[in-house]
Amino acid sequence: MSSEKVVLVLGAGLVSPPCIKYLTDHGFKVIVANRTLASAQKITAGVKNTEVRELNMELPDAVSKLDEWVPHVDAVVSLLPYLHHVAAAKVAIKHKKHFFTTSYVSPAMRELNDEAKAAGVIVVNECGVDPGTDHMSAMRIIHAAHAKGGKVVSFSSFCGGLPAPDCNDNPLGYKFSWAPRGVLLASRNPAHYLKDGQDVNIAAGVLFENYAVHHIPELNLDFEAYPNRDSTQYIQEYSIPEVKSMIRGTYRNVGWCTTIKKLSDVNYLDLTERSLEGKTYGDLTAELLGATDGADAKVKFAEKFGLKADDRVLTNVDWLGLFSSEKIPSGLKTNLDALCSLCERKLKYAPGERDMLLMKHEFVIEYADRTETVVCSLIDYGIPNGDSSMSRTVTIPVSIAVRMVLQGKLNLTGLQTPIIPELYNPILDELETFDIKFVDRVEKVVPKSCISKF
């Protein structure tokens, strides 16, 4: 009987190659199951010790296929859309196999904790980049501060996957490497964070009116920063009940938030199904604004928002082609679909271009004799004509976790996220061998004697 460990990777999307390569490089056999067999074959071409299978989680036979395959593997990694994680995890737990994903813990996933413990397996979630190494790098500093008697009174964390500055050549400052729907719909999310001890709630639909501009000295560039969903849940998760300000959010290049907010205001993010056959983008924009045609729509758009002819938002929307005579592709059924189709073509990476992952935490930590401001940052770039930064930073951390478990170096069970030293220390240390390195620095120290004067 072979002692070779086998990992079933669900999903052959754009982030999967570094995961597959890491696992095979460390002696594991990898079975890649994907909705389209051709995509799985393309992803694994030339990669040793791999096998591909067809799996569509939306078909009735999906669970029966997993029931057939999972007993013969040692771990399951789900890189599927988050809606399918729980179904896959249930099968893994049923057959007493470890389960891993990079996505946020859902309430349904949390309910599997006791079952996983009873089965003697670990279920690792939030082990990518955001969520993932954002937790790891933060907890390393928080635990160190607590060990020295410090209190974390303020914590902020922002992250963004963006074009590298040398490849940032479109007016919106963004490029998509996969379907843009989720990124565009982010503007509709509500947000909740803590500021100076007070709860701050931002209603759905006005999130992109509530961004700040952050300067990143390492890049000498400004970025828009907006809050991401409910930051306050991490007060308990990070064990910092003393915190007075707590916010987690997203970075975008300057101009993004205002432009997308205006498109939302004219109903371009609407999900209502309708007929768009035969329409141009100018026709649709004119209809949404009560204009006669694309040229008139540009005038009406400027009037609606009080924009001058050279306003950045107006020129951005014009550049996208929303006032143009370009035909909306046949078969699209919502305003959002029409916008997504345009973004996929206009905001895409050209061959050889690279992306950038930007993350920055800032802590204010009170000690008995001083207050420190600590900054932790990561700036990582994709490899031209190779793996993107997003794919590396998302899937190498979870791959390291898989290796640790299968090699017997991590013996925990139940639901786990990488907020514990047993996970974050070895993962962060190994990431440095891939040149994915967080830089910590103390930016400011104020002695207690000075603080008392003010």
Which secondary structure elements does this structure contain, and how are they paired or packed?
Layout: E1 6-10, H1 16-25, E2 29-34, H2 37-44, E3 50-54, H3 62-69, E4 75-78, H4 85-94, E5 98-101, H5 107-110, H6 113-119, E6 122-124, H7 133-147, E7 151-163, H8 181-185, E8 191-195, E9 198-202, E10 212-216, E11 221-227, E12 229-230, H9 233-237, E13 245-253, H10 256-265, H11 281-289, H12 294-305, H13 312-320, H14 335-346, E14 355-366, E15 370-381, H15 389-406, E16 414-416, H16 421-431, E17 439-447, H17 448-451
Parallel strand pairs: 1-2, 1-4, 2-3, 4-5, 5-6, 6-16, 7-13, 8-12
Antiparallel strand pairs: 7-14, 8-9, 10-11, 11-13, 14-15, 15-17
Helix pairs in contact: 1-15, 7-16, 10-13, 11-12, 15-16
Kindly describe this structure.
This protein is an alpha/beta fold. The chain has 17 helices and 17 strands. A 7-stranded parallel beta sheet has the order 3-2-1-4-5-6-16, with helices on both faces. Strand 8 and strand 9 form a beta hairpin. The protein is globular and about 70 Å long.
End-to-end span in angstroms? 72 Å
Number of strands: 17
- Going by helix content, strand content and strand pairing, the class is alpha/beta
Q: What share of residues is helical?
A: 25-40%
Please tell me the overall pLDDT: 94
- The number of distinct helices, counting runs of at least 4 residues, comes to 17
Strand portion: 15-25%
* Strand order in the largest sheet: 3-2-1-4-5-6-16
What general form does the structure show?
Answer: globular
Low-pLDDT runs of 5+ residues are: none
Rounded to an integer, what's the Rg over CA atoms? 24 Å
| Sheet having the most strands | 7 strands, parallel
